[in-house]
C-alpha cells in the first residue's frame, strides 16, 4: 500500500474538554487506486486529509507513506517527505498571479533541485496531459476556473508523488466542468500510479472512483468497492473536453 492510515485518533481543544475529529480511523489506498472520502461538513474529512498529508500530527495512530512511517520524523524530515512523496491539491488553486501556467509547475521542480531544462520539459508534459499545453504561457487571470484547477492538479504531480491528496476539486465548478476534472483525476491516478484520496461533499461523480469511504462524527465507514481498478498500461491517454474548460466572457 502506498498510503496507510492505522488507528488514527485526532482531537482538538474545545474549552475545558477536547473535541474528537478522528476516532481510530484506518484507511489503505494502493498505487493506482482512487478512494473518495465523503461526509457532511464537520464530519472529519478535512482532518483526515491533513493527517494523511503530514500537515497535522495525530494524537495516536500511524501514517505510512510508500513504506515509510511518519512516526518520530522531525519537522524537516516531514517537509522532505511531502516534497518527494506527496502531491496536494487544495480546494482553491492558490496559483501565483505573476507566473505563467508552466512556471507554476517549474517552481516546484526548482524547489526540489531539478535543472531548469528538465523542469521545463516535465512541466510541458504535465500541461499536455491535462489538456493545457496551448495555455502554458498564460497567467492565472487569463485562465478559466476549470483551467486553473487543472494547473493545480498538474502542479501537484510535478515531482512524481506516490500519494496524491485532493480537497474538494469541484466546489467552485459547474457540473460539466466538475465532471471533466473528476475524469481527469481518475485517468491521471491510473496513468501515474498514484495512491489518490479525493475528499468531496459532491456525490454526483462517485461512479468514476474505485472506492468510496464515508466519514461520520470522526469515524470512517469501511470503504465500499465501487469498481475494479484498471491497470495503468491499459489506459489510453487522457481525453480532455476543452469545450468544458474554455474561458467564458
TrEMBL record:
<dbReference type="GO" id="GO:0016887">
    <property type="term" value="F:ATP hydrolysis activity"/>
</dbReference>
<dbReference type="GO" id="GO:0022857">
    <property type="term" value="F:transmembrane transporter activity"/>
</dbReference>
<dbReference type="InterPro" id="IPR027417">
    <property type="entry name" value="P-loop_NTPase"/>
</dbReference>
<keyword id="KW-0067">ATP-binding</keyword>
<dbReference type="InterPro" id="IPR003593">
    <property type="entry name" value="AAA+_ATPase"/>
</dbReference>
<keyword id="KW-0813">Transport</keyword>
<dbReference type="InterPro" id="IPR003439">
    <property type="entry name" value="ABC_transporter-like_ATP-bd"/>
</dbReference>
<dbReference type="InterPro" id="IPR017871">
    <property type="entry name" value="ABC_transporter-like_CS"/>
</dbReference>
<protein>
    <submittedName>
        <fullName>ABC transport system ATP-binding protein</fullName>
    </submittedName>
</protein>
<keyword id="KW-0547">Nucleotide-binding</keyword>
<feature type="region of interest" description="Disordered">
    <location>
        <begin position="220"/>
        <end position="249"/>
    </location>
</feature>
<feature type="domain" description="ABC transporter">
    <location>
        <begin position="3"/>
        <end position="242"/>
    </location>
</feature>
<dbReference type="Pfam" id="PF00005">
    <property type="entry name" value="ABC_tran"/>
</dbReference>
<dbReference type="InterPro" id="IPR015854">
    <property type="entry name" value="ABC_transpr_LolD-like"/>
</dbReference>
<dbReference type="GO" id="GO:0005524">
    <property type="term" value="F:ATP binding"/>
</dbReference>
<dbReference type="GO" id="GO:0005886">
    <property type="term" value="C:plasma membrane"/>
</dbReference>
<dbReference type="InterPro" id="IPR017911">
    <property type="entry name" value="MacB-like_ATP-bd"/>
</dbReference>
Amino acid at each position: 500500500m502506498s498510503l496507510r492510515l492505522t488507528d488514527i485518533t485526532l482531537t482538538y481543544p474545545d474549552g475545558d474538554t477536547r473535541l474528537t475529529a478522528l476516532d481510530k480511523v484506518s484507511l489503505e489506498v494502493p498505487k493506482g487506486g482512487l478512494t473518495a472520502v465523503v461526509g457532511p461538513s464537520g464530519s472529519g474529512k478535512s482532518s483526515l486529509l491533513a493527517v494523511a498529508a503530514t500537515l497535522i500530527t495525530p494524537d495516536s495512530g500511524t501514517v505510512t507513506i510508500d513504506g515509510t512511517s511518519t512516526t518520530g520524523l522531525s519537522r524537516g524530515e516531514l517537509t522532505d517527505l511531502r516534497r518527494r512523496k506527496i502531491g496536494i491539491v487544495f480546494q482553491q488553486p492558490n496559483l501565483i498571479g505573476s507566473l505563467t501556467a508552466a512556471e507554476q509547475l517549474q517552481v516546484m521542480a526548482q524547489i526540489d533541485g531539478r535543472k531548469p531544462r528538465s523542469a521545463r520539459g516535465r512541466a510541458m508534459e504535465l500541461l499536455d496531459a491535462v489538456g493545457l499545453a496551448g495555455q502554458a504561457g498564460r497567467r492565472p487571470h487569463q485562465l478559466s476556473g476549470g483551467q486553473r484547477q487543472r494547473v493545480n492538479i498538474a502542479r501537484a504531480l510535478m515531482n512524481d508523488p506516490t500519494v496524491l491528496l485532493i480537497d474538494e476539486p469541484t466546489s467552485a465548478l459547474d457540473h460539466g466542468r466538475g465532471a471533466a476534472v473528476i475524469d481527469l483525476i481518475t485517468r491521471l491516478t491510473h496513468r501515474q500510479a498514484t495512491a489518490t484520496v479525493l475528499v468531496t461533499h459532491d456525490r454526483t461523480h462517485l461512479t468514476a472512483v474505485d472506492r468510496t469511504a464515508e466519514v461520520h462524527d470522526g469515524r470512517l465507514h469501511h470503504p465500499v468497492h465501487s469498481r475494479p481498478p484498471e491497470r495503468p498500461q491499459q489506459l489510453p491517454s487522457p481525453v480532455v473536453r476543452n469545450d468544458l474548460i474554455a474561458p467564458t466572457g
